[in-house]
Amino acid sequence: MWMTRSKKSPWLLAFALLAAPAALAAVQRVGDASATFTGKGPGGFKLEGHTGELRLEDAGAQLRIVVPLAHLETGIDLRDRHMREKYLEVQKYPDAVLEVPWSALKLPEDGKASTGEARGKLTLHGRTKEVPFQYTVQRTGAAYQVSGSMPVNLKDFGIEVPSYMGVTVKPDIQTAVRFGATKS
Prior knowledge:
Elements: E1 5-6, H1 12-17, E2 27-40, E3 46-51, E4 55-58, E5 62-68, H2 77-87, E6 95-101, E7 113-124, E8 127-140, E9 143-153, E10 163-164, E11 167-168, E12 172-183
Parallel strand pairs: 1-3
Antiparallel strand pairs: 2-3, 2-12, 4-5, 5-6, 6-7, 7-8, 8-9, 9-12, 10-11
């Protein structure tokens, strides 16, 4: 989530997008998914990261979007290791989790799309904070294609701001998610 080609799995925002009150009471992820993060630094430096790992969990009144952080990649092995071990501490805090009340989400009718903003609780690096996110949901029958994004400030979650050889990433990271889901 912090080094060059990555968008924080937090990302999770978008996940929340998928849910809707009773319409998707039991959700199941289908097809490919992605969670990304993008950070910026001095002189146009840009850090991007991604993972294809993402789980959806129906927690009763809430949708949980879980992004395992151990496989976030930025394209550089050493940076990935530092990101996981030093900054994210994935051995201690393996997942980023966004919990969104089903009632906060609006699902479109069949054949339509909807866009919205909502709030959820993001747990990252052992801390939980309410966060805003934006989402888009496209519905075809029982299938939903969801994308979403949210800003995350590393300092809000007690994560040290990444710095290497004098290049420091700004603490404000943009995260995004994309996934398909069905109701069962």
